[in-house]
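Lay summary

Proteins are chains of building blocks that fold into shapes. Our project writes down both the chain and a compact code for its shape. Here are two examples, one after the other.
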Amino acid sequence: MRITFGPWGETLAEVAAAARAAEEAGAEAVWVPELHRSATVTAAAVAAATTRAQVGTAIALAFTRSPMVTALEALDLDELSGGRFVLGLGTGVRRLNEDWHGVDWDKPVTMLRETVRNVREFWARCAGGEPIELDGEREPMRIRGYRRPYPPARTDIPVYLAAMGPALTRLAGEIGDGWISHELTSPAFLRERILPELGAHGRRVDVVTSACCSVDRDPAVARRRSAGMVGFYATVRTYADFFDFHGLAADQQKVIDAFAGSTAGGLAGHVSDAMVDALTLSGTRDQVAERIAAYAGLADTIKLTPPTHGLAPDEIRAAQREVIAVIEELCR
């Protein structure tokens, strides 16, 4: 498996420094999310701070930018990184799109399919100046009188799609260059639920499993750090099938019941050790290395991220240093 990393920082400078440290430790790619920062701006900071590792968004929200803006930002990031950029896109959930960003979320599978088509078509044709005429149920594109005068680093930038449900996962297997999970995907879920859907179209894609990774000499400390991340995902009712698959439906419901008026830090106290052990890589360095090895033969790439939800900055920094140390040991 390729070992990759998702950096954290209170400032963009700290994110960039963490990315550089992970690259020096041997990480083959650095991925940045979109929640508390813009994924594309953070990717620019990481691209400028690194020289070898791929730089990917994991993920950028697909519907809160127009496909043309997404395409332009990807071309700029690929140029800035010297051809190292990977465009990771995800739909987000309905509430995030409609309430936070004021954009429609109807028929997300259709909308994501047409978004990816438009982005790729724009990359292929924007330098020639010919019209782009694309019909679509959700994302038609009509561009006339436009020519991008700058030569692209590439017109075939990889596009990875985030998915957990069957329909979007099948779409990733059909049109994506890769698939990206959220941070709690277990080997069993990957084997039984994800890989059959990804392989439905007979194509080979890069399987990127993301993992919340918490390392400490005391396994109890490592578990406690990861509990807030698990609690964050457990509050999302659409993940009920995911938690039920792991025999954790009752555990999830306890978190949901405690959610009103609580924070990630507060939710951590309602997260069972069984949830943390099943869904995160938490423990000593040897225990974490053993859990990473369980993905061999299932995932092509593993993305290790430190726990962040509900933790003070200094504790996140300590957790991040341990993850980078694990990367260095694995990549020797």
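And here is the second example, written the same way.
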Amino acid sequence: MPSAALAAEPAGVQQFTLKSGMTLIVKPDRRAPTAVHMLWVRVGSMDEVDGTSGVAHVLEHMMFKGTPTVKAGDFSRQVAALGGRENAFTAKDYTGFYQQIPANKLEDVMRLESDRFANNQWSDEVFAKELEVVKEERRMRTEDNPHARLHEAMDAMVYQAAPYRRPVVGWMSDLDAMTARDARDFYRRWYIANNAAVVVAGDVDVDQVRALAEKYYGGLPTRSTPARKPREEPEQLGQRRLDFKAPAEQAYVALAFKVPGLSAEGLAASGSNEPDAASEEAMALTVLSAVLSGYDGARLPRALTLEANPVADDVGAYYGLTARSGPQLFTLSGVPAAGKTTAEVEKALRAQVALVAKDGITEAELARVKNRWVAGEVYKQDSVFNQARLLGVNWINGYPLGSDQRLLERLRTVTAAQVQAVAAKYFGDDALTVATLLPQPVDKTRKPRQLVAGSRH
């Protein structure tokens, strides 16, 4: 056979490498006569270079602007005529395109998607028009959102060398200077078969999907993936602070701590006698995040927002866990209650982590977090779209098939002592960045923005 099966798992997921070098992942689920077809490209804003930030996202928009055989806008119209829905998304680690269609229309969307992946083209004039749509998207979703602007500035301070310092949508000055050639060069460099994966989930037959994938994707040109140079983040050796002024109704504070993430190697070592220490800590940090704010009545909302004299109106904890590059961030955030300051919220947030470091967590908290995680993973499987999305994200990160089950197994082994240990180890000052929103007067007469005509997002 020209393509080789690489792996399979008991749930029926199978993975293949097509003749072109593209990966194919198929997961049958026959509960409804629908299918999800996704194309994942292992390229996102982290693969950009300074001066062209935002080009990955702009290119996502341009992928809807036609091929020699499909006019601009016809891709979406044809998918709709098939009874399907479609869209796309760009993140720091990846770009993705999807269609959810009746299962018997899978070949139609494979034909369409393989064509635009290989033959995307558009004029300079079309590019210039769509670039204005992207700029307006940035104005509406970032520049008019004080929290988004603060986190954008915070990322640029948290990371010095790591590529996560750039915003996905791009800096406005880079968008102003972007040319059609920038997007075309990015497309030619990264949109190659062995840097992409097709994921199909739903009411499908694996052999039939494999045959269709070879027909439409197997003959694509094969080129080497460009070398990715390491951009390792230097060790942070002291606290960083950012005061950010923007029109806003309330103040806000965010604290970002650099912590380990879950690597592909660490996940693969889950069956060994000596698991990777960093991945063990990553799972413990996941539990800590959930203990702090993963459910109603978790520690942060209970201690900071539900008391008789609350410190905050809103609080949260977030830990990313997975990404193509490290280090990861563990973020605490809060909005002060009336009469309270961001300094008081910051102190209260850190006090709750310090309390875990000192006294640990209860077995009841640990069990609740684990049970909720397991239930959440089960609920995700009710959606064919979510099944395909998880398979795609796992492929982007280099995780093997069965990673979701491995994560559950790892989670079940996390102990209260491990959670206490990471709370004590990673929440000091040296790897901390604090960003504080200082509210400025809001123009009450200003009308909300709307995306300009032509936007499809």
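What can we say about the second shape? The CA atoms of residues 146 and 246 lie 6 Å apart.
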